[in-house]
Write a structure and sequence with these properties.
The complex is a heterodimer of chains A (144) and B (268). With 144 residues, chain A is mainly α. Chain A has one domain. Helix content of chain A is 36%, strand content 8%. In chain A, strands 2-3 form a two-stranded antiparallel sheet. Chain A is globular, with a radius of gyration of 21 Å. With 268 residues, chain B is mostly beta strands. Chain B has a single domain, classed as Beta Barrel (Porin). Chain B is 6% helix and 47% strand. Chain B contains 2 helices and 14 strands. In chain B, strand 2 and strand 3 form a beta hairpin. The longest helix of chain B has 13 residues. Classes of the chains: A mainly alpha (144), B mainly beta (268). Chains A and B meet through helix 1, strand 1, strand 2 and strand 3 of A and strand 9 of B. Strand 1 of chain A pairs antiparallel with strand 9 of chain B, so a sheet runs across the interface.
Chain lengths: 144, 268
Amino acid sequence: MVLRSFRVLLALDLLLLAGCGTVKSPTEPSTPTGGGTALTFAQIQAQIFTPVCAKAGCHAAGSSPSGLVLEAGQSYGNLVGRPAAENSSLARVAPGNPDASYIILKLRGDPNITGARMPLGGPYLSADQIAGIAAWIRAGAPNN
Amino acid sequence: MRTLVPAALLAALLLAGSAAAQPAGPYDPVRRDPVGAMLINGATPYTVGAREIELLFTHRFQQPVNDGGNSHNLWGLDSGSDVGLGVAWGATSHLDFSLYRASFQEDFELAGKFLVFEQAPRLPLTLAVRAGADLLRRPGVADPHRPFVQLLLARKLAAGVNLFVSPSWVRDTPALRNAFNVPIGLTFPLGSSSLIEIEYIHANRDLKDSQDAWHVALSKSLGGHIFEVVLGNSRATTVDQMLGGDSAAGFRRRDVRLGFNIIRDFSY
């Protein structure tokens, strides 16, 4: 009797096993990432990564969290198409798709990021700088 | 509900009369295995008991081992982590209240759990109801107040062998307005004081990018503590992030993340 009841329960559970739900309506991104003039990767490196990010204790070789070194010569390979350590379902840079690029979420301070907005503690990049990086990603993130 | 209350009262009366030295009666609960109010991430039907407090510490590395890269970051162990702190207070032997705070999105999970009845020779399983809400305090998070209800079932099949089945509903996951799912847990004995614990949450069939979530833990009872070393693909530890297979922290089916839990009960 007991076993039979338990089997019935199991069978009911198997019927219900696949989760179901109601999908939310898509919403606009919190901050538009379009409209900027694309920077070249060399400009991003020279104007942003090297002076702002690739510092000791931050994203310099030997001290970078999760292996994200942003020094010249290493940054491109560490960013483009590489999964974000804090969110493995997103690439750090997804060529053609800035909204799915974790670097843009981190620079914007998106509520779904893990940890803090970058650069840590600010001052944060200007809207034009973020738009320039987003436009570079939208253009396919070339190593130009 | 009309039938649950008398059943609960009956179970409470029967449980109140039990004593370890006496032979087990038909409604004396079977001896529990060393699992806490939570298995790995999900709730068990067991309450902590009257005049008891259970503390819970969870730690999940953010970076999957499979994405860890190389020895320079110790294959991901140098990455950041999500930390959770929780406390459960036993108001009575059948009712407890818990507060758990996960660092990801500053998620506070408040819940009450009522143990309706516990498995005994004449009762085939343990049944509890758990209800509460996840309150997310990270600025900008959409729908930060997320109520949930869970029916928690457990069946002890043999010493150390337990099956947990938890039909659950939550209002608002990161991508779903309403999510229903049935997390499943299993334990198997390993030696005299260790258990292998498994949790599985099926992907949501209504959400395209929903992922199956799985976790395996080695659980060891030692010195009044339960230590759990955890392997799993998702970092989610709260109901709102687990049920939809759509944790805002992101995960893939093939990810393998390390973590651990520490559980400790105190009497007062």
